[in-house]
Amino acid sequence: MFPGHLFSTFVGGSDPAETSRISHETAHALLSRVRANPDADILDRLVAYTDNHGIETLAELWATAPARSLPGALWRIYLLRALIRQDPHTSSLIFRRGSEVIPTIDPVIAGAAVPTNVEEITTLADEILRGVFDGDFAIALDRAAAYCRINAAGCVSLANDADPIHPERAEGLTRRALRYSTLGDELAACSKLWRSESLD
Q1: pTM > 0.90: yes or no
Q2: Within 13 Å, how many C-alpha atoms sit on residue 162's CB side?
């Protein structure tokens, strides 16, 4: 048992309300300032931020924000770009397969060059993120959502191919498909909220 005065030496966890306030304020400040003055050098630095500093800083700021919020949307866009950059070969393979099998116009909405190889998929990631700051924010979210839906379809198709021989690989791809599908739904919802001026 600790005496009461010793409890003051322990640092508690961060206040969830304060964390939420900071994540929303930083997201709003960043977006409004850059969109008000979209300087090319600043845009380049923002797009390449996680390449130079890692994604951990942004995770601390925005990862715990609700999915249907401005910081939640920014976090998901940066996360998608980081995932593509970590493994562009697999990303382009999944995207190509998804583009072949998906029965929607999502490949057109995503806007990747065809055929989508390593260079094209990394360019797509940069274009989507750049569009957040220098373009129609809702369209950037729609493109990211379309990318996620395509990847979900690609993962399911590749999982079906792998299932007879590598069931554990198929299981991993199926889980990835679910994550992409969820991410796509969240980004699409954020796009609708932005258009109705309700994305906080």
Answers
A1: no
A2: 15
